[in-house]
Amino acid sequence: MKFTLKDFDEKARTGLIETGRGQIHTPTFMPVGTQGTVKAMSPDELKEIGAEIILSNTYHLYLRPGHEIIHQLGGLHKFMNWDKPILTDSGGFQIYSLSSLRKITEDGVEFRSHIDGSLHFLSPEKAMEIQVSLGSDIAMAFDECTPYPAEYDYAMKSLTLTTRWARSCKQFLSSLQPSAFSHQPFLFGIIQGGMYKDLRKKSLEDLVEIGFDGYAAGGLSVGEPKEEMYDIIEFIAPLMPENRPRYLMGVGDLMDILVAVENGFDMFDCVMPTRNARNGTLFTSRGRISIKRTEFKADADPLDPDCDCYTCRNYSKAYLRHLFLSKEILSMRLNTIHNLYFYLDFFRKMREAINSGTFKEFKRYWSEILQAKAVG
Amino acid sequence: MKFTLKDFDEKARTGLIETGRGQIHTPTFMPVGTQGTVKAMSPDELKEIGAEIILSNTYHLYLRPGHEIIHQLGGLHKFMNWDKPILTDSGGFQIYSLSSLRKITEDGVEFRSHIDGSLHFLSPEKAMEIQVSLGSDIAMAFDECTPYPAEYDYAMKSLTLTTRWARSCKQFLSSLQPSAFSHQPFLFGIIQGGMYKDLRKKSLEDLVEIGFDGYAAGGLSVGEPKEEMYDIIEFIAPLMPENRPRYLMGVGDLMDILVAVENGFDMFDCVMPTRNARNGTLFTSRGRISIKRTEFKADADPLDPDCDCYTCRNYSKAYLRHLFLSKEILSMRLNTIHNLYFYLDFFRKMREAINSGTFKEFKRYWSEILQAKAVG
């Protein structure tokens, strides 16, 4: 994996990840395509708004339609008609958050599907096999997501297991043939350790010793207070290898992202922009808007006068409100286009700020907007 | 309204309707945009698949968001970002099919909204006012949709009322100022009369005496057996003025459309392609397909190998099945694109068949496919 750092602004940094399927400018935001589609979007629309990489969920695709079927059909890129990079998670987090009856052993996790209750077993080996058969560009090591709160002992045992699994993932991946339609995925290790700094440090050091193409912080944004999360972010980011991409998993609040980028994180994913869009909460350069509010009933203005997305170029707030209240599919489409465009544009501007040494001003400017009460 | 007939193949005919907002080649199919959007589609996609006109529902837009708001925002075309022709129905059929507590008087209909139960009154004058304020290109006269079955006496009284209302519509429309953003709509009269031929004939003759830009057959496909509907279609079409567009309202089954075109109808609308799409029933050149079926689980082929739509060019049946089972929004989008493309393409080919004098062969060929059992 080729990762080139471009500019630094104190600890914040810009860079370029190069893969066989295209470039990724960092810091980058990955829209989430859980079930082989970013909800409400077409691949063409994702390209149009400038997405360079998306995330897809191993757990979901393994359960439905099944990775063997996707493999047989030529891989996930072909299946979903997306030719740019895809990062696949390992399934660990979804087992933690969605499935029932988990039984964790040294070998892996037994769990019941959230779809039909059927019994399944995922292990480091299985997680690698699935991600390779999907044709993933960046695979994640299989981890146990440490819950919050967790006792010190539990967090230590959990990270030890995660580290052991990470080693198994790397070994097993190197023994696997790449899929005919794809390069072998790059592999990222996942740092756990709960809210304990010494455990986080140990987790990271053990992973670095094994050696990965990139490093991710997992087990954050799982219910802990913001201060605790920020504390871990500030602590761990500077310790992570400088010449490898640093990925903060599942954290998508823009304020949190500003803090993480300030400390040197490069990659992010979250359902927040897409999920909020479907619920009618829209991000704008003046703050958040709830599109259902009566004050927009006859509002001829676009959502965001400073936005160049398809939605803002063509539709009024009054129309978007009407579509939302009428529960029209186009409501979810136009709102999602806008929110994702807003996120990707925010990242573009953030990279420019880092490149021009003005990240501090950028952060101060946006912090005020993001922390203000919703404007509508 | 400029309507030019191009070719005849026995009673079937092709023609061209010219409006200030663009041409409409007939026979034409109008996708239904009930609430100011054709469900799951963007206006750009509608253009891409070749839609030349859409239908929008006066009843729905009057109730939500309200025609005054749409007027204030510059009309329906601007509101929904669609600059081609729009035909608006009069609301009569929706009052009949959706609302409760209807009270029909000489002046109009009192009814309760299906959304919130609020009390409303629509009249010929009000229906014209609404359609003008929306900026409609083709307005429909306000009618009472005669239910099926209906006694002879009821059908006669109903059509007499519809005729009286039609006259009021024409008179009132001529007294209204057109909206600043639109030409004054062309006005179509609606033939009622239930399943009684003499009443249908009387209804038509009375309307022709008043004089309209086009004539529509209403009150069909409301529960009557196909034979009765075909009987009325065959009876009434040849009696309708040759030099005016003939519109068969709400009939969208392709077999029915073949019969109607054979007898000289020019315009059609129906929710069938869009609603079926959302339910996973897809039209193909080999017959209907239910996309959820297990046999498509790993099917790498497109829905229809003979189809050039975006969906068929880019996605496998296996992917479409996966999206449908996963209840993804993209499922409804891709299915709708395909079904509407299929309909519009069917109409293109039908016009070619008429122009080249091969409509009979066209009808025979498609009848077999359309009447066969679903293939999947």
UniProtKB/TrEMBL annotation, chains A, B:
Cross-referenced SUPFAM superfamilies: tRNA-guanine transglycosylase
Binding, substrate: D89, S90, G91, G92, F93, D143, Q192, G219
Region (RNA binding): 250-256, 274-278
EC number(s) on file: 2.4.2.29
Domain tRNA-guanine(15) transglycosylase-like: 10-368
GO MF annotation list: metal ion binding; tRNA-guanosine(34) queuine transglycosylase activity
Cofactor requirement: Zn(2+)
Gene Ontology CC, one term: cytosol
Purpose of the protein: Catalyzes the base-exchange of a guanine (G) residue with the queuine precursor 7-aminomethyl-7-deazaguanine (PreQ1) at position 34 (anticodon wobble position) in tRNAs with GU(N) anticodons (tRNA-Asp, -Asn, -His and -Tyr). Catalysis occurs through a double-displacement mechanism. The nucleophile active site attacks the C1' of nucleotide 34 to detach the guanine base from the RNA, forming a covalent enzyme-RNA intermediate. The proton acceptor active site deprotonates the incoming PreQ1, allowing a nucleophilic attack on the C1' of the ribose to form the product.
Family classification: Belongs to the queuine tRNA-ribosyltransferase family.
Name of the protein this chain belongs to: Queuine tRNA-ribosyltransferase
